[in-house]
Design goal:
four-stranded antiparallel beta sheet, two-stranded parallel ribbon, 8 helices
């Protein structure tokens, strides 16, 4: 007796130890997961660094050319081959126009990096929301299979009773048991899908610990758009617009190269007889050979035209995608309306009458299975339509920047 009691105590101790050894699961809502992903995702870190890079360049000030240190030796009829030695330093001064152009260029590149970050942020949010909505769909699917499992288990028992009474064949009894086993297998498959989604979610969040998503019941989402000009404020449109501004800044920098710049220098002359004389010079740097500079300016103008064309293409593509998504949303709503008005009640009645009539011997197993498969199809299509609607809404909100 004492030995049996000690075994129970040891078993409880081992269970408690295992519970503390297991890693704690982190419950996360959709919004918490989004915030965590935006903090940890390497793509967000990369865009932050690009923004910082352009900010540093923008605040770097004028771009000075390297100073020129020179040493000249000049022959002199009286002082010989090394009659005069000159040592000095010369510096070219950047033009104010070029400095302003470079600062403007880096400012616009910073805005472009911020626009790119908006696209990255949008994509991360969309991934997280897709996973959470898919998990809601899988939860609904698991609940449906659990309901069907209860029905098929009761029917399998009824088939066994009828077989024992000699009312049905062995094949019918085995078919009922097999269908019950298939439903349980489907339910296990759904659990594996849920686990896979949890693993993918943890990878996106950059977490080593197991993640426990807190998902809501799958329901009909709502989206409406009153003004299609919202497309011009989307992340993709902002990036296209920023590319145009960068191209204009590049043209401004190319044109600034035509501006003359000043230079100044100081030097000292050492004569062969030992005399030393200081000196200074001022200069003006004028671009005399302008063919390559004109080519750079013309190329920058072409770049502006190309960026403008790509921006218009982006807007056109977004408008086309918006129309397609709104059409898909309408299709999903029509199918969901059918379920709400007819499909739900039909599936419920098929399940109820099918099980009742088979148990009472008024329905063959083949007819019963057909009724249940019809009911199962109605419920599964409803879940798929709910998931489809919510995925379309996620795409619409990302497209319009809502």
């Amino acid at each position: 007796m004492k030995s049996h009691f000690m075994k129970k105590i040891l078993a409880v101790f081992l269970l408690v130890k295992m519970a503390f050894a297991l890693p704690a699961q982190i419950p996360l809502t959709e919004q918490q997961a989004i915030e965590l992903a935006l903090q940890n995702h390497p793509a967000m870190e990369a865009t932050n660094q690009y923004i910082r890079q352009q900010e540093v360049l923008k605040n770097a000030g004028a771009m000075w050319e390297p100073s020129q240190l020179f040493h000249n030796i000049t022959a002199d009829p009286d002082l010989g081959l090394f009659g005069t030695t000159t040592v000095g330093i010369q510096q070219n001064f950047p033009s104010g126009k070029m400095t302003r152009a470079n600062r403007n260029l880096h400012a616009n590149r910073q805005l472009q990096a911020e626009a790119r970050q908006g696209i990255v942020r949008q994509d991360i949010v969309r991934q997280i929301r897709d996973i959470y909505h898919h998990l809601s769909y899988l939860d609904g699917k698991a609940a449906l299979f659990n309901r069907l499992d209860s029905v098929y288990q009761r029917v399998a028992r009824a088939a066994d009773v009828r077989y024992q009474a000699g009312d049905v064949s062995l094949a019918e009894k085995l078919a009922a048991q097999d269908k019950a086993a298939q439903i349980r297998l489907d339910a296990r498959t759904v659990q594996h899908e849920i686990e896979f989604d949890r693993i993918v979610l943890g990878q996106i969040l950059g977490l080593d610990e197991p993640v426990q998503p807190v998902v809501e019941r799958l329901h009909e989402g709502v989206f409406s758009i009153a003004d299609t000009t919202l497309l011009r404020t989307s992340a993709l449109a902002k990036f296209g617009k920023s590319a145009v501004e960068v191209a204009r800044s590049e043209q401004e920098a190319a044109r600034a190269k035509f501006t003359p710049t000043a230079s100044a220098g100081v030097f000292g002359q050492y004569l062969g007889n030992g005399d030393v004389y200081p000196g200074w010079q001022l200069g003006l740097n004028v671009p005399l050979f302008r063919k390559s500079l004109r080519a750079q300016s013309e190329a920058a103008q072409v770049g502006i035209a190309a960026a403008n064309a790509e921006y218009r293409q982006t807007l056109l593509q977004q408008q086309t995608e918006l129309g397609h998504l709104l059409h898909e949303q309408e299709k999903c709503l029509i199918l969901l309306d059918y379920y709400n008005t007819e499909g739900r009640s039909l599936a419920t009645e098929l399940l109820r009458t099918g099980e009742l009539n088979y148990s009472q011997g008024e329905l063959s197993y083949a007819d019963f299975a057909q009724l249940l498969e019809q009911a199962e199809g109605i419920e599964l299509r409803h879940l798929e339509n709910l998931l489809g609607l919510n995925q379309v809404i996620i795409e619409l909100e990302a497209l319009t920047g809502q």
